[in-house]
Design goal:
about 325 residues; alpha/beta; TIM Barrel; 8-stranded parallel beta sheet; two-stranded antiparallel ribbon; disordered N terminus
């Protein structure tokens, strides 16, 4: 067993973070496709139709040492599921997502943290798009309630680019009674590499201020164009200069490349893990990875984190 003891893991997530940094998981979408999901199909419905395949992926993350695993519910809102004819399965899909993560931790003999995942609703709100604010609010509230009814320890509203949708997601998690709410922005590195901001022009300082004011408990970043480990470290440092809240980072495994008509991320576990100790030094409370990462990346993270906590390099 790693330094993540059973006694620590039984504490509420925010309490555990007072004692030591925790390890998240890696990419889900690419792992689902490796397991047979056809690109463009609904991976979330696998929670009820192929739960053993989802469990296989999340069990590998648990075995690699993840303390926190996100549910397979990124596109689990009614608006997103409706595009695949699954609008009537919102509660079942999200509750099953929580149960599968619990089973993954159980299979390795420890209690980890289940983070209910809410991704973007996949459209634009009026006046720029066809969805009303009320429709998005209802969809996020329904999903957040299902995740909490299923027993999630926290909810992350992730891959956000604008504050309006993020705020609706935070409000939905609050209404559902979530004890730990994570807001996560997707930043894009500018062409000259000098800085990064979201597609909607939001920088880390503004995002952190907004999330703290709105009632989030953890300020995070994930995905984004060019957001590798060094850029994630810079984002964390900018968060820490702006807020006293806990911070979380899920950078990509390098940059995407098209190889044989498949998108491949170019950073190996051996390369990516070099950024773990600097991220810890910046004050990261939860560290995971996003696009292109695998259980092997997370296993390397686990080793580096444990060595650092034990007084190593």
């Amino acid at each position: 067993m790693t330094l993540a003891s059973k006694e620590l893991m039984k504490k509420p997530l925010l309490e555990a973070l007072k004692e030591r940094p925790l390890l998240g998981d890696g990419a889900m979408g690419t792992q689902l496709m490796l397991a047979g999901l056809v690109q463009g199909n609904c991976g979330e419905e696998w929670n009820i139709h192929h739960p053993e395949r989802v469990l296989g992926i999340q069990k590998r993350y648990a075995e690699a040492g993840s303390d926190c695993i996100l549910t397979n519910t990124f596109g689990g809102s009614r608006i997103m599921l409706n595009r695949h004819g699954n609008a009537d399965n919102v509660a079942a899909i999200n509750k099953a997502g929580v149960a599968i993560v619990r089973e993954a931790f159980k299979s390795v003999g420890r209690e980890g943290y289940v983070i209910g995942d809410i991704g973007p609703f996949g459209g634009l709100m009026e006046p720029y798009g066809e969805f009303t604010e009320d429709q998005v609010r209802e969809a996020f509230t329904e999903q957040a309630k299902a995740l909490m009814d299923g027993g999630a320890d926290a909810i992350i509203i992730e891959t956000q680019t604008g504050l309006e949708e993020l705020g609706i997601g935070i409000d939905a998690a609050k209404e559902a009674g979530c004890p730990c709410i994570i807001g996560s922005m997707a930043y894009d590195v500018t062409l000259d590499g000098s800085t990064f901001r979201t597609m909607m022009g939001i920088d880390p300082e503004r995002a952190a201020e907004f999330m703290e004011e709105r009632g989030a408990h953890i300020v995070a970043l994930n995905c984004g164009t060019g957001m590798d480990m060094p850029h994630a470290k810079e984002a964390i440092e900018r968060y820490k200069q702006t807020t006293s809240l806990n911070v979380m980072a899920q950078p990509n495994a390098g940059l995407p490349k098209l190889v044989n008509m498949q998108v491949i991320y170019d950073e190996t576990p051996e390369e990516m893990v070099k950024g773990v100790v600097p991220l810890m030094g910046a004050g990261t409370n939860i560290m995971g990875a996003c696009c292109g990462s695998t259980p092997d990346h997370i296993r390397a993270f686990r080793k580096a984190i444990d060595e650092k906590l034990a007084g190593g390099v």
